[in-house]
Design a protein that fits this description.
The chain is mostly helical. 77% of the residues lie in helices and 0% in strands. The longest helix has 28 residues. It is found in: Cell membrane.
């Protein structure tokens, strides 16, 4: 029991040292990690636009939108919204937008649930959860949102 109490005290000192910066560093890491996942997907889409259009016409089942428009919106969202996350600019709307892009990917590609390896669908769930953390807690001090809002480091 004393070992657990000692361990708790060590972590408490570490938390006290970081102060507000701990959450800011965590937010920065989440923003960059999730943003990079979507940026890679967007770059792959524009890297072979014919293949992207073919996927949106034949594989993905995006409701209500023509495949060409869905492809443009998907690629655009996967390129613009991560850039906003990286900078921490309009962070909450960008994270919410990527959450919706992620949800649409899951909805429009039901084969994700049928793969033998659950990693594909699990990744989408993890990314969605991390994006909701950013929506709920914001970008932290290490962001343009904080600079524009006047939150300067102490």
């Amino acid at each position: 029991m004393n070992t657990l109490i000692g361990l708790h005290r060590q972590f408490s000192r570490f938390d006290a040292c970081l102060g507000d910066w701990g959450g800011s560093l965590a937010s920065l890491a989440i923003r960059w990690y999730v943003g990079w996942q979507f940026m890679k997907a967007g770059l792959a889409k524009i890297g072979d636009w014919d293949a992207t259009l073919s996927l949106f016409r034949d594989e993905y089942q995006v409701p209500l939108l023509p495949p060409e428009l869905a492809a443009w919106l998907g690629a655009g969202g996967e390129l613009l919204l991560p850039a906003l996350l990286f900078a921490g600019l309009l962070t909450r709307p960008a994270a919410l937008g990527l959450f919706l892009v992620n949800a649409m990917a899951v909805i429009s590609y039901p084969q994700l649930f049928q793969f033998d390896c659950p990693a594909a669908i699990n990744d989408h769930f993890y990314w969605g959860a991390l994006l909701l953390v950013v929506v709920a807690f914001g970008p932290g001090r290490l962001s343009l949102d904080a600079m524009i809002g006047g939150k300067r480091p102490a």
